[in-house]
Every structure is written in C-alpha cells, then in structure tokens.
Amino acid sequence: xxxxxxxxxxxxxxxxxxxxxxxxxxxxxxxxxxxxxxxxxxxxxxxxxxxxxxxxxxxxxxxxxxxxxxxxxxxxxxxxxxxxxxxxxxxxxxxxxxxxxxxxxxxxxxxxxxxxxxxxxxxxxxxxxxxxxxxxxxxxxxxxxxxxxxxxxxxxxxxxxxxxxxxxxxxxxxxxxxxxxxxxxxxxxxxxxxxxxxxxxxxxxxxxxxxxxxxxxxxxxxxxxxxxxxxxxxxxxxxxxxxxxxxxxxxxxxxxxxxxxxxxxxxxxxxxxxxxxxxxxxxxxxxxxxxxxxxxxxxxxxxxxxxxxxxxxxxxxxxxxxxxxxxxxxxxxxxxxxxxxxxxxxxxxxxxxxxxxxxxxxxxxxxxxxxxxxxxxxxxxxxxxxxxxxxxxxxxxxxxxxxxxxxxxxxxxxxxxxxxxxxxxxxxxxxxxx
Length: 434
Known about the structure:
The protein has helices at 38-48, 52-69, 83-86, 89-106, 113-132, 153-162, 172-182, 190-199, 203-215, 219-222, 267-293, 313-330, 342-356, 370-380, 385-402, 418-424; strands at residues 3-12, 19-28, 34-36, 248-254, 260-266. By secondary structure, the chain is mainly alpha-helical.
C-alpha cells in the first residue's frame, strides 16, 4: 500500500494575491520517492482554500481512497499521478464495500453506512471538478452506479462472508443501529428556541428561523420564499392580500437535488411573518437594495438584511453561529450542538406527535402509515421514506414520553402560529418544558 500524507501548507496565492492555506497530498512510493499529487492538490486549492476543516476532511478522504486503490491489481503498475484517468464508478463503489468489510471484521460502529456514503459523494465532487476543469477522467457523475447499496440482502450477505466472521457477529444493520443509539436524540427546547430568536441581531434571521420551525424547510429553500410569487406560486403575496379561507398555503419550492416539491405553510405563520418582518422592515430594506443595485428589488426576493442584501444560506449559517454564542451567554443551558438546522427537525417531530398521540408508545406506530409517511416525505423532501419515518417516530416518542403531563401543549394546530405555540409551551408548573 502506498502511504499518502495530507500536509497543511500556507503561501501567497498568485491568483488572489492573498494568503492561501489548505492541505495537499504527498505520496511516498515504494522506492521512498515522494510525489505531490497534482490533480487532487489543484482540487484542494480551488475548492477548499479558506476552510481548513473542509480542506483537511477532503484531503483525508482522497488519501484513503488513493491508498486503497494502490492495493488493487488494476492499479499495480500504474503511476499514482495517473490514477484519476483510470478510476471509474465501479472503483468508488468497491471502496465503499471494502470499508464495510473491514468495519464488520473489526465489529466497529464507525464509519457508519451514512459516513461511507457521504465520503464517497465527496469523491464524486472531486471528479466533477476534474471534468469541469477539462481533465480526463473515467468517472461519470451523471449516474448513481457509484453507490454501494448496503440495504440489498445479497450485498449484506457478501460483506458478511468476506469479513469471515462467525454467524452471531454483528452485521452492518446492527452496527449502524448501535451507532445511532450511542448518539442521543434530543429536540431543541422551547427555551433554546426563544433564546436563539432573541439573540439574532437582525430580525430577518428570527423570521427565517420561525418559518423553518413551522415548515421544516432548509435554508436554501427558505430564501426562495417570495414577497409576491409567480407561476405555481402566484397565489403567494403579503398576508393582508391573501385568501384566508384555508388553514394552510401551498408553496412550490426547488429543494435538494433540484427537485420541485410542495410545502404546506400555516396561514398564521404567514401572518406572523407579515407582522414581525414584512410590515416593519421590508419596504425600508427594499429601498436600500434599490440604492445599492440601482434596480428595483424583484418581488421574488423577500428576505433582505439590514444593508439591503438578499439573504443566502451561508449568511444564515454565519449569523446563526453568532446568535448561538450570544444565546449561550444569556441562557447557560443552551447546548453548543444547536444550529439553525435544528428547526428542520422540530416540525416533523411535532407532526408525528399530533398524528399518533398516545399511539407513539405502541410499537405498531413504527409500521409505515401511508398517509403520515407521504405527508412527511412531501414536506421534508426526503427520498428514503423508511429511514425518515423511523427517525422522527423515535424522536417524537422520546418527546412524548418526557412530556406526557403536558403533551397537549406540543400539538401543532392549523389555527396556531409557531410563535403562539411557543408562548403556550411555557411550563405552567415545576415540570420542565420541552
């Protein structure tokens, strides 16, 4: 096996004339000769310069993959600097399988199937960059045949046999389950929600966080919500001008994987958005946009910051991290792990509690219920319905069990906005609220 070392370097970039800092890969071949891997290093420079943690992670993944390839017969007589030309989708899939075999051999909970998949997807980003940069590769980023399907029974049996373990050894499924169980499931509490909302220095982020709580939308989806919609969303406009006969409003949004789906939004949450952001702030920020851009702010853009700049997912992440640090000071029990994304888990958990109620404590609730499952998939935009279903059933069961005495305060009613629900969730006795 060829040893490949990730090395952190710092220098002045001739492209930006600023300081560059990222990892590079150096291979030590059999004769002791050291070789810099040009193509991976170009990728690391262009795609990870500016984020040391990302650069380190990507460098480690590519180094592990290249080290694995060096043990394969296909690459035995190939110069490591030429690997990228011969690698194909099958090699990426075989690497995933090899990692699972070694994991089962060691009976280790790490790396999980999810981690193995995610790291293989990062490899695909590397080859996509090579393709777009004009370098020759044999990897197709258009097809999903690079994925190793670890839910396939034949695949599981093959891995179990290759691992040469006794019959009662833990398989992939049990190891993944053990890993999930070792990571405690917990929902953001109402006190943490209020602390984070209050900690944002710009109310636009509080409005976005509340909208995420009420819909389960991702940051990239939230910023698409318009002031006035068109096409499939032509019915969307400020609350005062909307049809209020229905309890929810449908919003067509392009989500992860560029897939279009319909999200249901509580009409009361739109009123909250109108009262706390649109009426007091939007018009003034629209004027700032006009002044800076020298064009009118298009009706497709609703969320603008104090300077009149359209909000992006990156801005949400950065401002939420700042708010979290502030919230941790004002509320000492605020957990460091809490992020903006926790809002996305809040809605489906509340939905499960509303839907199943006391049945959550019955094992039969784990059986796929078509109506609930389809509504959950449509709202969340997940392909893997079974995994999504079980995750939120488990989460809801934990919350329900902890709050049996006050569970009625958790239920998401079409007549209540997120803010009204949070106000009602204030503990009325000594029992700790959710």
